[in-house]
């Protein structure tokens, strides 16, 4: 609920909307934390419930960010939100740090969410931007994101970018690398 006791137009608190809007606005860059391997982007495809387009939705399983309310919550009030693009190979601590940094930016700047995508598949909406389709695009977005650099810290960001670029190079030179992940994980 908002500070005056009411919820925003989307059924969440103002603080919740600001935080989620921050995550939304930085999502292409934080994918470098949430989807850390070139192989991670094979999963983030349209029509797979993994969130391939830059959008958010209420109970929409195709949106990378979605609000959800468990049964029994009145009037569609939002009790949590979900990030669909968080890959199982990601370091959960770094992923959460990126999410928190993006959310902090949303709180600081009082960001607002755009209109949610309809409860239909966003892949049919030509107005929506596609999220990065490969790790190099996420790394490029992260390198350009001065807000995340300031909040997370330049040293950690430099290390993450360096490791991601090494992964990109390794996978580009080793065609069997993706198959080896199956045995490793």
Walk me through the structure.
The protein has 185 residues and is mostly helical. Helix content is 47%, strand content 6%. The protein has 7 helices and 3 strands. The chain has a 3-stranded mixed β-sheet with strand order 1-2-3, with no helix packed on it. Helix 1 packs across helix 4, helix 3 packs across helix 5 and helix 5 packs across helix 6. The longest helix is centred in the first third of the chain and has 21 residues. The termini are far apart. 36% of the residues are buried.
What topology does this entry show?
Layout: H1 14-34, H2 40-43, E1 56-58, E2 65-68, E3 80-83, H3 92-108, H4 135-144, H5 146-152, H6 154-173, H7 177-184
Parallel strand pairs: 1-2
Antiparallel strand pairs: 2-3
Short description, anyone?
InterPro entries: Gln_synth/guanido_kin_cat_dom, Gln_synth_cat_dom. It contains seven helices and three strands, in the order ααβββααααα.
> Would you tell me the structural class of the helices and strands?
mainly alpha
Gyration radius, to the nearest Å? 17 Å
Mean pLDDT: 87
3D shape:
globular
- The stretches of 5 or more residues where confidence is low (pLDDT under 50) are none
Number of helices: 7
Share of helix, binned: 40-55%
Order of helices and strands: HHEEEHHHHH
Domain GS catalytic: 1-185
Keywords: Ligase
Organism: Acorus calamus (Sweet flag)
Family: Belongs to the glutamine synthetase family.
């Amino acid at each position: 609920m908002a500070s005056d006791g009411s919820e925003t137009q989307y059924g969440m608190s103002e603080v919740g909307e600001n935080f989620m809007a921050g995550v939304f606005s930085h999502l292409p860059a934080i994918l470098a934390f949430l989807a850390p391997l070139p192989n991670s982007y094979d999963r983030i495809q349209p029509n797979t419930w993994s969130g391939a387009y830059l959008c958010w939705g209420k109970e929409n399983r195709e949106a990378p960010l979605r609000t959800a309310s468990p049964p029994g919550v009145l009037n569609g009030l939002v009790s949590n939100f979900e990030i669909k693009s968080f890959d199982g190979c990601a370091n959960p601590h770094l992923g959460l740090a990126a999410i928190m940094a993006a959310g902090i930016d949303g709180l600081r700047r009082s960001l607002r969410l755009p209109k949610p995508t309809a409860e239909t598949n966003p892949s049919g909406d030509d107005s929506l931007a596609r999220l990065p389709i490969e790790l190099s695009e996420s790394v490029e977005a992260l390198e350009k994101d001065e807000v995340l650099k300031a909040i997370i810290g330049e040293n950690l960001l430099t290390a993450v970018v360096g490791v991601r670029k090494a992964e990109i190079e390794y996978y580009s030179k080793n065609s069997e690398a993706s198959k080896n992940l199956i045995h490793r994980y």
